[in-house]
Amino acid sequence: MKLPSAVSHDEPWDLLVVGGGTAGIVGAKTAARLGARVLLVERERTGGDCLWTGCVPSKALLAAADVAASARGAHRFGIAVEEVSVDFAKVMDHVRTAIQHIAPVDSLEALEKASVCVRTATARFTGPDSAEIDGTTLRFRQALVATGASPAIPSIPGLSDVDYLTSDTVWGLSELPADLVVLGGGSIGCELGQAFARLGSTVCVVEGASGARPCPSRGRRRPLRRLRSRQDRAHRLGVRGASPPERAAGAVLPPPGGRRTSATHR
Ligand SMILES: Cc1cc2nc3c(=O)[nH]c(=O)nc-3n(C[C@H](O)[C@H](O)[C@H](O)COP(=O)(O)OP(=O)(O)OC[C@H]3O[C@@H](n4cnc5c(N)ncnc54)[C@H](O)[C@@H]3O)c2cc1C
């Protein structure tokens, strides 16, 4: 497909897609396959959370963690594994390799091959059928806003003083944290908690939705229960509104009425 050097004022696009994550890519490719003229606008890099900070890196991390856990439990099958040591830098190399392996599928080139026109810019709507891209106004018949989500930072007093990680930034770690407090026991918190625990961190998952408060789904309770296994070296605290870690390193998380939990990372 020939890409326009400037976005035309005159010809409305059949579909304007804002956001080049999984939702935007699938929406754009599907519409293009049905014959629509599609413009996808992505402000950073195509692939979104799933490729860069979500599904792909987390499953790669879990795969490495699973190998470590299996090796530790190999004796149950009569297989002797002398010592399991984790080279976290190499684990993260493996995670990056997994991302690079999948990246071409979500690339700009793949989108253009699927007849989707791609612009790297921030889109801004200026009217019911118009948007501004790179200072140029264009018109569209339909728009798909697929701009994703970001980690919700809870308003816990003192948290802003802490150099905490999120599910977006945890991928920049180069050293395995000795202790890790995970705020949030949903699927992402449980996945990350389990992975780090199996790699050797001592993990504490803090989740408010337990005990007295009903969990949103049965599926959410199951991973929390599994995290309690001794082998995973992780445990959860059913506390709501827990006080925040006090310092960036060696912080203390005191649950109401519970014991104090030390952590080097959150
Ligand atoms: C650790 C982790 C593990 C996960 N594991 C799984 C899993 O196993 N299975 C699963 O199904 N889901 C999983 N998810 C969830 C999954 O990653 C997200 O649901 C999915 O990536 C959301 O895709 P999206 O396209 O809606 O948004 P995003 O991927 O966030 O994409 C939105 C895009 O819009 C762009 N954008 C925003 N504003 C503008 C603008 N004004 N102009 C232009 N571009 C803009 C952003 O730069 C971004 O690229 C996981 C998430 C995390 C964090």
Task: Outline the secondary-structure elements.
Blueprint lengths: L12 E6 L3 H12 L4 E5 L5 H5 L2 H18 L15 H15 L5 H6 L2 E5 L2 E5 L2 E4 L2 E10 L33 E5 L3 H13 L2 E5 L11 H9 L7 E4 L13 E3 L7 E3 L3
Parallel strand pairs: 1-2, 1-6, 2-3, 7-8, 8-9
Antiparallel strand pairs: 4-5, 5-6, 10-11
Helix pairs in contact: 3-4, 3-6
The protein binds flavin-adenine dinucleotide (FAD).
Helix count, DSSP H or I runs of 4 or more residues: 7
Estimate the mean pLDDT confidence.
83
In the CATH scheme, the class of the domain at 159-263 would be Alpha Beta
Oligomeric status: single chain
Q: Quote the CATH topology of the domain at 159-263.
A: FAD/NAD(P)-binding domain
Please tell me how large the radius of gyration is. Answer: 23 Å
What does this entry look like structurally?
With about 270 residues, the protein is α/β, with parallel strands linked by helices. Among the domains are: about 5-45 and about 105-145, FAD/NAD(P)-binding domain (3-Layer(bba) Sandwich); about 160-265, FAD/NAD(P)-binding domain (3-Layer(bba) Sandwich), CATH 3.50.50.60. The chain is about 30% helix and about 20% strand. It is built from seven helices and eleven strands. The protein has helices spanning about 20-35, 50, 55-70, 90-100, 110-115, 185-200, 220-225; strands at about 15-20, 40, 115-120, 125, 130-135, 135-145, 180-185, 200-205, 235, 250-255, 260-265. The strands form three sheets. The chain has a six-stranded mixed β-sheet with strand order 3-2-1-6-5-4. It has a three-stranded parallel β-sheet with strand order 7-8-9, covered by helices on one side. A two-stranded antiparallel ribbon has the order 10-11. Strand 1, helix 1 and strand 2 form a beta-alpha-beta unit. Helix 3 packs across helix 4 and helix 3 packs across helix 6 (about 185-200). The termini are far apart. Flavin-adenine dinucleotide binds near residues 18, 21, 24 and 149.
